[in-house]
Amino acid sequence: MRMVIDTDTGSDDAIALMLAADDPDVTIEAVTTVAGNVPLDLATRNALYTLELMGCGEVPVYEGCDRPLLRPLETAQWVHGEDGMGDIGLPPPQGSPRDGHAVDVLRRLSLEQPGELILVALGPLTNLAAAIARDREFLTRFAHTFIMGGAPDAVGNVSAIAEYNVWADPEAAAMTLAAPGAKTIVGWDISRKYAVVGPEQRRVLEEIGTERSRFALDINGVLDRVAREYNGLEGFDMPDPITMAIALDPSLVVSSEEVYMGVATDDQARGLTYVDLRKSEAPPPNVRVIVAADADGFLNRVAGMLRKA
């Protein structure tokens, strides 16, 4: 599997990158970064550091959009730490981003390798939307696009109804969902239900005791507190890792639906993702939405990756 990853690298994105980097059947062609969880420079720094930790420092990293299409950037640093990685004092990476804008690189890769690449989008969809604005058929040249975004059940994590990635740049999300191309949505509902590291799961990961497991738990320390105090979860959840795991292993999908999903861009309902299930009036399906996932299978995949030295 050949993959391109678009990320606003915060603490859960890092675990998603680790899952992809660890898989022997995956070649990461490029990582592109976007502003979201943290400003663009920190998203890039965190991606570089994580890839180097995994022995994949040769993977090219390209910087993309440093703000949403039409709105000011509102980061999630209060969720992931000022540096996006739990503020644990990580040293700077050894490498640097490559020359070239992420949007141009994404388009170039899609043109050079049509139908051969999987695209996994883990942050706000600004880079994808910018590519679509130039090239309406952009997503059709990927074998599939997996998107961590939205809350099909309208239970949000940044507002009562909205998930952060879509809320951060709802116009970009609306453009991306409306564009042609095969897309799978893994919403925050899947993370909330099937990817929470509560006390029992945390004990499993702590007992592993490798450099990778300590890194994964330490960088999510701020997220763990926020998830419990703000979102009412039993521990930190992993929306980006479960999205990546589903891209890597389709057997983790218990059920899914082909539906029409739209995005609200008005200020009152900003970032709301809604599914139209009306049989006679709904527009044609534009995405596959994951409805249920294998929580044990997901945790086992994460734990297996973390056990490696």
Short description:
The protein has 309 residues and is an alpha/beta fold.
Give an account of the 3D structure.
With 309 residues, this protein is of the alpha/beta class. It has a single domain, classed as Ribonucleoside hydrolase-like (Inosine-uridine Nucleoside N-ribohydrolase, Chain A). The chain has 13 helices and 11 strands. The chain has helices at residues 11-22, 40-53, 77-80, 102-112, 126-134, 164-168, 170-178, 188-194, 199-208, 211-219, 221-229, 239-248, 295-307, and strands at residues 2-7, 27-33, 61-63, 117-121, 144-148, 183-186, 196-197, 236-237, 253-263, 273-276, 287-293. The chain has a 9-stranded mixed β-sheet, sandwiched between helices. Strands 7-8 form a two-stranded antiparallel ribbon. Helix 2 (40-53) links the parallel strand 2 and strand 3. The protein is globular and about 55 Å long. The mean pLDDT is 97.
Please report the distance between the alpha carbons of the first and last residues.
23 Å
Form type? globular
Under CATH, the homologous superfamily reads: Ribonucleoside hydrolase-like
CATH architecture: Alpha-Beta Complex
- What class do helices, strands and sheet pairing give? alpha/beta
Number of strands: 11
Task: State the CATH class.
Answer: Alpha Beta
Number of helices: 13
Q: Order of strands in the sheet with the most strands?
A: 3-2-1-4-5-6-11-9-10
Radius of gyration: 18 Å
Stretches where pLDDT is under 50 for at least 5 consecutive residues are none
How much of the polypeptide forms β-strand, as a percent range?
Answer: 15-25%
What is the share of helical residues? Answer: 25-40%
